[in-house]
Structures are given as C-alpha cells and as structure tokens.
Design brief:
Elements (H helix, E strand, L loop, with lengths): L1 H6 L1 H40 L5 H50 L4 E5 L15 H11 L17 E5 L1
Antiparallel strand pairs: 1-2
C-alpha cells in the first residue's frame, strides 16, 4: 500500500501540498532564529563589557522558548496533516483494492512489505501498478509536472488465488 501511495499522483500532490505549507512557515522560523542568534551575540558582547544584561537575557530566553514551542507545534501539525492525507488516500485505495480483488476473482489480497511477507508470489499477481492507475483515474490530482515520482519501494499488494 505504501508503494501505491508513493507512486500515485494523489500521494505526490499531498506531499507537495504539505511541503509548500510548511516550507513557508519554516522560513519564518529560520528568520526568527537567526535574529535571536544575532541578539544573543549582542548580549554576550554587552556582558563582556560588564553591562547588566539580566532583563534582556530573560527576554531573550522567553523569545527562544516561544520559538521552540512554535517549532514543536509546527512539527506536530505536519505529522497530523500527513497522517490525515495518508488516511484519506488509504481509505480510497482500500475500496479500489476490493474492486480489483473482485475483478480478478481473487480470494484474498495480501500486502507485501520490506520484510518479504509474500516474497515468493509471482510478480504477475502484484496489484500495485493496477491500483495506482485506477486511483489516478478515479481521483485525479492537480498537475504534477514539477514533482518527481517517489523512488520505487519494495512494497506492493499481492493477490493469492
């Protein structure tokens, strides 16, 4: 299933959407971090000149903690958004797998993975390419010409008659 998600246009579109959403936010956090680093250097220079920086350092530490909290929130948001998009794709693909199983008169469909659960099944029975094609037909994604396809993985769905 993971290989089908990675190879489908919908999966690529979801990854691109997530990347775009969080690159902009990350750029802002990086800018603020650089600003805080500059302020820290100024504080250290003032401390070297025996200037009392207690209040300014407390303010700086508070801003740093706020930045770290925002970074952690963004990471959590990214994980949640990725899980939601993946679950939506899996829900759609599960329906399509059942459709393919019925069309091919298969008794069961097994998911193979890196551990080689179904390592000895003939590749001719692999449903992954058919699943990706059917998914892309039923759930077209926006134009994806700028996005390279994900690298091929060992994951795939296997049909057993």
């Amino acid at each position: 299933m993971q290989r089908a998600i990675n190879e489908s246009q919908g999966g690529a579109a979801a990854r691109a959407q997530l990347r775009t959403m969080f690159q902009q936010r990350q750029a802002e956090l990086d800018r603020r971090q650089a600003q805080l680093q500059g302020e820290r250097a100024q504080l250290e220079a003032q401390a070297a000149q025996h200037v009392d920086i207690t209040a300014a350092q407390a303010q700086w530490e508070q801003e740093l903690q706020q930045l770290q909290a925002e970074y952690n929130t963004d990471q959590s948001d990214l994980t949640a958004a990725e899980a939601q998009m993946t679950n939506e794709i899996i829900t759609r693909m599960t329906t399509l797998v059942e459709e393919l199983r019925a069309q091919r008169n298969a008794d069961i469909v097994l998911e193979s993975n890196e551990t080689g659960l179904v390592a000895h099944a003939p590749r001719v029975l692999d449903l992954t390419s058919a699943l990706v094609t059917l998914y892309d037909q039923r759930f077209p994604a926006p134009m994806m010409s700028a996005i390279a396809p994900a690298p091929d993985s060992a994951n795939g769905a296997q049909v057993v008659h």
